[in-house]
């Protein structure tokens, strides 16, 4: 196996100027044919996959930092870094890079010469180095001009950095800074500001190590207080020494660790507060400063993690009842920052970090903290809990399941989280949103483990629905005991919307657990009470919950919906919404359209049988008429199974577009002897077989008389029954004035009489003796003997209409004759 000298971590700099870990592997250099040049290759130590393939470009500036880092930019705003485990490996790769670029390996940076003129290049090549003016107060302006003039040229920046480093120039400048402050020499202090800022932009690790040393860093910050663009100097040193206090919640015995913490805080302060906001050009030049802070944090976490006594004391004090509230708050804040620093670790190191915290008892400690009254402490504990859940949800799940064997439901960690979500006092429920996201992660089967011995999904979901779900749904059940929400203020609506969002997620991802819970606890009926909320977003959440259930096309759910008549609140909300074209209108129509398109037969029949009268006048979409057509087709197939098979035969011949051919075929089928249908049910009663065509026309007049009688009966029924047409249970709908009357009169007008100009009216072209299409449809519904259409093809409406007229007239006439005989 490759030796550890070549073991590296690969980092890339993201848009937030933070280093992202891309994995650990082993680096090598070699010629890559595809890239046409010597390249750096890093292969992952886990599976051998290629983590990095980067051509060593002769014009790319590579930097070696802290003896084990190589940093460079592949393209604009795309920085890469290799962090070596050993210095020897870093030196080997650095030699390869310098060899390709023709550089001396003793330098810490290689530079691009493309932007320099030939004259500058000749001058720079002919002079071995940059000569700095003597470090004197009188020459500060000259030094500032030299630094400013060197920044645009990469090679001059390198030579300036080497000169500053070799001559110990920074310490001399800081001595002059003290003199200028003592003399109150404002001009000199302004020059020193420009010089120190320019040194930062040299982006040189060796210079940073000098500037950020214990003896120099406060003077460097002092130089940066005197910005020439400001009328008054800033008081950064005063803030760092007097206002900002270093608190050791647990005494740190390692002096190196303590110094590293101080240094990191101050450098972070310089980056965030002292240095002016960098321009686009300058931002890339400060990448080394970002790297310096990043790797310092990695070191701090590693050193703390190795100090077993420190962590033992930390958790002992956290869980000790004798610890006072102020001390515990400081401990929690420290632990929160400690976890935040851990995000800089590599995955395998982060594994070890969280495993260490788990062994120390972080979850029982969090349980104690979350039970406290202090809102700030609970907030910090929530942030720590989020780090644990996001990184290792299985660890949290295992803890809460073990805990359930010893404690009551009320004090379980996961129930504490739910209670904090429910009791969030923030008007915008910021904390509740965060906690809901954590609960969603915990109940997500996608991140649950499955082994040969046990299935985490089965065990945890069984635990969650037994011990926790009743706590989650308590606010929902308490608020939906009547026909309208008992509390409908904005904050309650927001909370219920969050709970519904989580329940909707459960419907989608949990199978029988959520199904049993919804059906046994009648959850959907309670959720649909929220359709009456004055907050549209909550009503839509309730509708989305039902839509998710219908989308599963599960007959258990469908039977539950039909048994409890759970379309009633939806239809009621749809009608109360009126003619407004809004999200509620579209969402409800989409749900019914889904039922129609997916041909969910049980729900189609339920909707038409119970709510057709309320929906039949909605003609700006064809959804409800399409549902009615589906319903009639399936009822027809139930009554006449043989016709379904004949319909499929005709469907196979639909490619023949000649109308006469179709008419001939259909006439042949209608006139054929029914004895040809072997053992199936006869389409018409056998007693009609002997009737001739002259006998058929006579009963039509009788049928028309019966139809008129039925029209008057239906008008009376419509006045007595509700819009749904359902007799039991009664469909109670409240409408604005005039709605019910209009719907009733329109339905009567449209369905109980044929309009003179309609295609199927007696006055329009058609076959002799044809009745109106609306009359035929009504007759078909009344007698359950007619055919609505042979095939449900949207583009064949005209042919379907003709088919309907022919198919309906004969069976109705025969049945009329039967009844008269």
Helix and strand topology:
Blueprint: E1 7-13, E2 19-32, E3 37-44, E4 50-55, E5 62-65, E6 69-75, E7 78-84, H1 87-101, H2 118-126, H3 140-150, H4 154-166, H5 169-183, H6 186-201, H7 205-211, H8 217-223, H9 236-243, H10 255-274, H11 280-285, H12 287-306, H13 308-319, H14 325-342, H15 347-360, H16 362-370, H17 375-391, H18 393-404, H19 413-422, H20 430-442, H21 456-467, H22 469-479, H23 490-509, H24 512-521, H25 523-528, H26 536-551, H27 555-563, H28 568-577, H29 583-597, H30 601-615, H31 623-639, H32 641-652, H33 659-671, H34 693-720, H35 739-751, H36 773-783, H37 797-820
Antiparallel strand pairs: 1-2, 1-7, 2-3, 3-4, 5-6, 6-7
Helix pairs in contact: 3-6, 5-6, 10-12, 14-17, 16-17, 16-19, 17-18, 17-20, 18-21, 19-20, 20-23, 23-26, 26-29, 29-31, 30-31, 31-32, 33-37, 34-37, 36-37
């Amino acid at each position: 196996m490759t030796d550890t000298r070549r073991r590296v971590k690969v980092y890339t700099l993201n848009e937030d100027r933070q280093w992202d870990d891309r994995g650990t592997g082993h680096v090598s250099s070699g010629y890559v044919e595809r890239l046409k040049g010597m390249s750096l290759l890093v292969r992952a130590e886990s599976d051998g996959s290629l983590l990095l393939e980067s051509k060593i470009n002769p014009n790319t500036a590579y930097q070696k930092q802290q003896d084990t880092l190589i940093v460079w930019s592949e393209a604009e705003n795309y920085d890469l870094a290799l962090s070596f485990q050993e210095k020897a490996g870093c030196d080997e790769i650095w030699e390869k890079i310098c060899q390709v670029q023709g550089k001396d390996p003793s330098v810490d940076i290689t530079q691009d010469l493309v932007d320099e003129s030939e004259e500058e290049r000749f001058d720079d090549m002919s002079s071995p180095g940059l000569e700095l003016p003597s470090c004197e107060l009188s020459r500060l302006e000259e030094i500032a001009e030299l630094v400013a003039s060197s920044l645009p040229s990469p090679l001059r920046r390198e030579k300036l950095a080497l000169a500053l480093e070799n001559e110990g120039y920074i310490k001399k400048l800081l001595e002059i800074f003290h003199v200028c402050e003592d003399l109150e020499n404002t001009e000199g202090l302004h020059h020193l500001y420009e010089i120190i800022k320019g040194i930062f932009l040299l982006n040189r690790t060796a210079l940073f190590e000098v500037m950020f040393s214990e003896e120099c860093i406060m003077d460097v910050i002092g130089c940066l207080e005197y910005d020439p663009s400001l009328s008054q100097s800033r008081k950064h040193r005063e803030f760092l020494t007097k206002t900002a206090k270093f608190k050791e919640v647990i005494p740190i015995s390692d002096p190196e660790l303590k110094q590293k913490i101080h240094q990191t805080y101050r450098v972070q302060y310089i980056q965030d507060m002292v240095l002016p906001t960098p321009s686009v050009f300058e931002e890339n030049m400060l990448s080394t400063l970002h790297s310096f802070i990043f790797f310092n944090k990695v070191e701090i976490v590693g050193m703390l993690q190795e100090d077993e006594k420190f962590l033992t004391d930390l958790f002992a004090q956290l869980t000790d009842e004798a610890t006072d509230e102020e001390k515990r708050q400081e401990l929690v804040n420290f632990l929160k920052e400690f976890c935040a620093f851990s995000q800089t670790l590599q995955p395998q190191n982060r594994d070890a970090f969280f495993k260490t915290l788990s062994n120390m008892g972080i979850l029982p400690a969090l349980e104690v903290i979350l039970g406290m009254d202090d809102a700030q402490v609970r907030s910090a504990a929530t942030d720590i809990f989020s780090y644990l859940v996001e990184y290792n949800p299985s660890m949290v799940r295992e803890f809460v399941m073990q805990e359930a064997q010893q404690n009551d439901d009320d004090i379980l960690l996961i129930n504490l989280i739910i209670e904090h979500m429910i009791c969030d006092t923030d008007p915008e429920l910021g904390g509740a949103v965060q906690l809901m996201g954590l609960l969603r992660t915990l109940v997500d089967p996608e991140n649950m483990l499955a082994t040969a011995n046990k299935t985490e999904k089965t065990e945890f979901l069984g635990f969650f629905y037994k011990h926790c779900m009743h706590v989650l749904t308590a606010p929902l059940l308490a608020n939906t005991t009547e026909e309208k929400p008992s509390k409908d203020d904005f904050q309650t609506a927001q909370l219920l919307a969050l709970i519904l969002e989580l329940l909707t997620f459960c419907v989608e991802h949990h199978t029988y657990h959520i199904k049993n819970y919804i059906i046994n606890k009648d959850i959907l009926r309670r959720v649909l009470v929220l359709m009456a909320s004055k907050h549209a977003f909550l009503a839509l959440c309730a509708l989305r919950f039902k839509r998710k259930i219908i989308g599963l096309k599960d007959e258990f759910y469908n039977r539950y919906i039909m048994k409890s008549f759970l379309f009633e609140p939806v239809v009621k909300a749809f009608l109360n919404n009126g003619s407004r074209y809004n999200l509620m209108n579209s969402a409800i129509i989409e749900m019914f359209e889904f039922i129609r398109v997916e041909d969910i037969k049980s729900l189609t029949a339920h909707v038409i049988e119970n709510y057709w009268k309320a929906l039949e006048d909605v003609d700006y979409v064809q959804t409800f008429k399409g549902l009615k057509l589906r319903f009639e087709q399936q009822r027809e197939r139930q009554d006449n199974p043989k016709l379904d098979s004949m319909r499929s035969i005709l469907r196979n011949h639909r490619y023949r577009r000649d109308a006469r051919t179709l008419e001939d075929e259909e006439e042949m089928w209608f006139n054929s002897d029914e004895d040809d249908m072997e053992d199936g049910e006869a389409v018409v009663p056998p007693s009609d077989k002997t009737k001739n065509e002259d006998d058929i026309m006579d009963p039509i007049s009788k049928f028309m008389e019966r139809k008129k009688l039925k029209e008057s009966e239906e008008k009376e029924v419509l006045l007595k029954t509700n819009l749904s047409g359902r007799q039991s249970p009664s469909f109670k709908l409240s409408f604005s004035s005039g709605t019910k009357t209009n719907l009733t009169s329109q339905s009567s007008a449209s369905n109980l009489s044929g309009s003179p100009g309609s295609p199927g009216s007696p006055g329009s072209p058609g076959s002799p003796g044809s009745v109106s299409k609306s009359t035929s449809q009504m007759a078909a519904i009344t007698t359950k003997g007619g055919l609505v259409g042979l095939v449900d093809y949207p583009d064949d409406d005209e042919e379907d209409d003709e088919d309907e007229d022919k198919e309906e007239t004969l069976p109705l006439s025969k049945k009329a004759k039967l009844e008269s005989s």
